[in-house]
Structures are given as structure tokens and as C-alpha cells.
Amino acid sequence: MSAAAACEAVVYTQALTRGGALLPEMRALLEAWKPGEPAAEFAKRVQRDDLVGKATARTAKDYVYAFTRRFLTPTDTPARHLRHLVNGGVSRQMVNDLIFHYTTEAEFLLGDFTVLRYWPAVREGRLAVANQDVRQFIWEAEQDGRIPTPWSADVHRDLPARVLRALHEFGLLGDLKSGRREIGPYRPADRSLVYLAYLLHFGGVPDGALAEQRAWAVFGLEPQDVWHRLDTLAGEGWFVVQRAGQVVRLTWHHRTMEDALDALAR
To answer: How does pLDDT run across 85-144, given as a tens digit for each residue?
Structure first.
């Protein structure tokens, strides 16, 4: 699949230049966020109450900007879900997985690089990913319209390292050595996949199309991998998976997303 075909109508931004994964900061903001609070007021409270360490006004604003893009746009549903799960004490791995999911939904550059370059490199048996791999990906995006106006030399120099650093912080890559990061043994938590399955289901995705959704590809799962993991998870009582050839039917044990969140948080 070409990058252009996979990313039709997608426009990349430079947002990652203002921060990478920001996992500790995003977790702290999820715990502190109040539904309905305006972003400007939240940014002021973040700095005033020292919610993310001794951040400057500019840094606090950047953190809230990232939080808003990832979890409050176009609705605050992601923030509400993650706040519920964080407060329920789910595993750190699950929280990180779901922050990764929502970050790649907001930052198309990170998501598409992960799907179109990182996971193919894993399947090819490559040992590392380099800044130059991201730089080439950005150049291709400038050619096919995903970046409508070419970025500056400074962005071309700095952003590739930011993309790889984010993947490092999310657990997909190792430490930086000579402009390269080793590919790590990443595997999303089982309950992260349960959450995604219910999210897609209650989002209107038919059972037969469930494994074809892009959300799984970000985690390196192809359709057969998705069904294998869901078959395994069915044994824990989350759902029943029935497959006969191309016909797929799931019996969902939780009737609402809120019920599923409660069960995941227990």
C-alpha cells in the first residue's frame, strides 16, 4: 500500500515539535482535568497548582495544547474514558497504550509513520529505525500533499528525532545511538485491545469489519492477529467470538461503553 493511498485527505502538522509522548504529563493532566473546563483556564490552573512540575507558562500551555489535541478534540470522550481508567487503577501499560492510540489519532504523522514504516521494518527483520527514515517519509509527504507547504530546514532537522523519541517513550524503540534507535519487543496489553474492541463496536463498526480498522494497525496487528488476540480474550469473558468463513459475529457481554469501562477499571 502506498503512503498516498493510505493517507488520502490527511494533512500532517508540526505539533510533535512541541513535545513527544509526554506520558507523565498526560497522565497528570488526565487526573487533574475537569470535564467542561475551558483549555485556557485549565492551562492557568496547571501552572498555578504546579500539576506537571515547575513548568513555565509557555510549557504548561504546550502541555495543555497537546492534551487538547489528543483527548478533547473533536469531543472530550477520550479524556473521559482515560480519566475513568486512570482513576480506576488500570495498569500503566494500558494507560500508555491508549495514550499512544489517541496520540496517533491526533498526530497523523506519528500514526502513519508507525503503520507505513515502523511495522514494515519490524516484519522485514530490521534491527533499528533511523532519523533518516523519518526524514524520507516527511519528504514523500511534501511531494504528495500530506504536507501542503514544505517545512523549514529546522523542522526537517529536528522533527525526525521527535518522532522516534515518541516511539521510544511509547515502548516501540530503544535508546538513541548515532541517530538510530533499536526496534523493541513491543506488545499492547490485553485490556488495551478489549478497550479498542468495545470502542469500535459502540462506534458503529460491524462485527465483520472489526479487525480491518486502522486502530489495530498502529499496534502492529493485522486482521488475523486481531482475531487471534480476541479469540484468546474471549476466554476471559469479555465477549464471544463466532467465525465461520467470512462470517463473523460477536456477542458483547457489556451493553454500554460505560459498563465496559467499569469492568476494565475493576
So the answer is: 999 999 999 999 999 999 999 999 999 999 999 999 999 999 999 999 999 999 999 999
Tens-digit pLDDT profile for residues 22-36: 999 999 999 999 998
Spatial CA neighbour of 93 closest among 18, 223, 189, 162: 189
Q: CA 187 to CA 39: how far, in whole Å?
A: 33
**SS3 state at 1:** coil
List the domain range (segments joined by +) for residue 216: 190-265
Q: Do residues 159 and 222 both lie within one domain?
A: no
For residue 49, how many C-alpha atoms fall within 13 Å in the half-sphere facing its CB? 11
The domain that contains 175 carries what CATH number? 1.10.3540.10
Q: Closest Cα partner for 103 from 5, 22, 221?
A: 22
Do residues 20 and 104 both lie within one domain?
yes
